[in-house]
């Protein structure tokens, strides 16, 4: 296993248990209405690539809009679950990847690349690798919607010891990754994550924080520039 794959496994291995995904699904509607849909309006849903699909709670929302979805996850348990969940929907295909690349997805195949509530946990090197892969698979004019960490105090530390399991990343560094990959930033919104009501902390046996964690997340919307005629 190479270094990048090992880093990807570090942030992927904790997210296999059904109890986590079952609980997360219960708050998906609120997150979609408040954080996600206002930023996705105007995107092209012809071919959506979804990173770290888990048990498909985001896939189910995207399926209301998309003509085709390619859902990707590092964990075979999640891949098997999503394949079974959407077995009757020919628009949805599911791939297992190495957690840092989009191998198997052709160049310029996607009109939208989407990731919610997953990349916040990824190692910075994995985030950067994914950004370059996103640039490769996006069609000109296609967009990316990525929810990532804006937690800058934990560089080099185990993300499981950090607030809300956020790995090190910043709005500025993610923006630099985008520009280096030839992608244009449309908007970056730093958002709070209320750690005073953390359903997942109870889930994992962690002690809830008594204060909100303002600004530890960022939602970045970006675009692959259209080809000039």
Brief overview:
By secondary structure, the chain is of the alpha/beta class. It has helices at residues 3-12, 18-26, 28-40, 57-62, 76-85, 124-137, 171-180, 199-203, and strands spanning 47-51, 68-73, 92-96, 110-115, 138-149, 184-193, 213-223. The chain has a 7-stranded mixed β-sheet with strand order 3-2-1-4-5-7-6.
What does this structure look like?
The protein has a single domain, classed as Rossmann fold, CATH 3.40.50.150. The protein is built from 8 helices and 7 strands; from the N terminus they run αααβαβαββαβαβαβ. It has a 7-stranded mixed beta sheet with strand order 3-2-1-4-5-7-6. It starts with a helix and ends in a 6-residue tail after the last strand.
Distance between the termini: 43 Å
Instruction: Report the principal-axis shape.
Output: globular
Q: What pattern of helices and strands is seen along the backbone? A: HHHEHEHEEHEHEHE
Number of strands: 7
Please report the first level of CATH classification, the CATH class: Alpha Beta
- Superfamily at the CATH H level? Vaccinia Virus protein VP39
Structural class: alpha/beta
Number of structural units classed as domains: 1
Which spans have pLDDT < 50 for at least 5 consecutive residues?
195-210
Q: For the report, how would you describe the main beta sheet?
A: 7 strands, mixed
* Backbone CA Rg: 16 Å
Strand content: 15-25%
Helix percentage: 25-40%
* Largest sheet, spatial ordering of strands: 3-2-1-4-5-7-6
């Amino acid at each position: 296993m190479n270094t990048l794959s090992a880093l990807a496994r570090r942030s992927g291995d904790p997210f296999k248990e059904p109890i986590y995904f079952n609980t997360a699904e219960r708050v998906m509607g609120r997150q979609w209405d408040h954080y996600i849909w206002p930023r996705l309006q105007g995107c092209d849903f012809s071919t959506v690539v979804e990173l770290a699909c888990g048990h498909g709670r985001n896939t189910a929302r995207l399926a209301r809009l998309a003509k085709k979805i390619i859902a990707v996850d590092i964990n075979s348990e999640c891949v098997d679950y999503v394949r079974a969940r959407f077995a009757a929907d020919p628009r949805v295909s599911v791939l297992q990847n190495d957690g840092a690349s989009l191998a198997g997805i052709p160049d310029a195949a996607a009109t939208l690349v989407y990731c919610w509530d997953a990349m916040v946990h990824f190692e910075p090197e994995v985030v950067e690798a994914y950004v370059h892969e996103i640039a490769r698979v996006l069609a000109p004019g296609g967009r990316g919607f990525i929810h990532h960490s804006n937690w800058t105090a934990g560089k080099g530390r185990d993300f499981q010891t950090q607030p809300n399991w956020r790995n090190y990343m910043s709005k500025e560094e993610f923006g630099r990754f985008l520009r280096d990959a030839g992608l244009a930033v449309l908007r970056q919104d730093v958002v709070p994550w209320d750690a005073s009501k953390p359903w997942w902390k109870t889930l994992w046996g962690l002690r809830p924080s008594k204060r909100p964690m303002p600004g530890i997340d960022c939602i970045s919307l970006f675009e692959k520039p259209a080809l000039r005629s």
